[in-house]
Amino acid sequence: MPAGQLDVRISHRFGQVNTGSYELWGLDQANTHFGLEYGITNRVMAGIGRGTFEKTYDGFLKFSLLRQSTGRRNMPVSLSYFTSIALNSTKLQLPGPVNFWMRASYVQQLLIARKFGERFSFELNPTFIHMNMVPTVIDPNDIYAIGAGARFKLSHRVSINAEYYYVIPPSRSSTPTYNPLAVGFDIETGGHVFQLHLTNSLATIEKGFVGETTGNWRHGDIHIGFNISRVFTLD
After folding, report:
1. pLDDT in tens, 80-112
2. Which of 48, 82, 132, 235 has the highest CB neighbour number within 10 Å of its CB?
3. Strand runs (DSSP E) across the chain, as ranges?
4. Cα(123)–Cα(61) distance, rounded to whole angstroms?
5. DSSP track, 43-57
6. Per-residue confidence (pLDDT) for residue 174, from 0 to 100
7. Mean of pLDDT over the chain
8. How far apart are CA 95 and CA 62, in angstroms?
9. Other beta carbons within 10 Å of 156
10. Pairwise CA distance, residues 235 & 227, whole Å
């Protein structure tokens, strides 16, 4: 994001499609996230947000380290570093006090991206997540994953997108989790971007959809979701 630009983003996930007609195939349920992202410089971006999932407050920094280029300086890929912190603010029934840092989770990512021509882009995301607090003593505090994302532009304003994360299976876990997969469309309408997608993950931030996806595509645990983004230029 260029320096001086503010991105207002609203993300929404409905319930699972396989809940049937009584829940209107998930449309009776709602999970939202509201975020603000700001370009501090042309290479540094920061953001904050609040989501329904675990009533999470989150913040992140993203640093652009390398940019794909040709000519005098040939750089085959773009490379960025992403780091975030998320705080679970739900009321917890625990025998002892729960302090601020016990509620924190951290994400570290490298974003390795390449644009192949005018239409196709591809990205790899090695990911590490650490959660200070987990549901039980057998659940892992550390999660390792590798993500892949692709975009194909159907026109100047419409693209089809897909994202998948392979999560290295933990040795022990109290709750089965699955690799997150999302497919959808982006539609640009002037200063707005509208994204419509299907996903097996209810969460909208990295800590949640990488490490806490409990939906299985093969069982119909699919959420209809959409994101709306609006960019404002402040400088």
Report:
1. 999 999 999 988 777 667 778 889 999 999 999
2. 82
3. 5-16, 31-39, 44-51, 56-66, 78-88, 104-116, 120-131, 142-153, 158-167, 181-189, 192-199, 223-233
4. 19
5. SEEEEEEEETGGGEE
6. 86
7. 92
8. 37
9. 8
10. 25
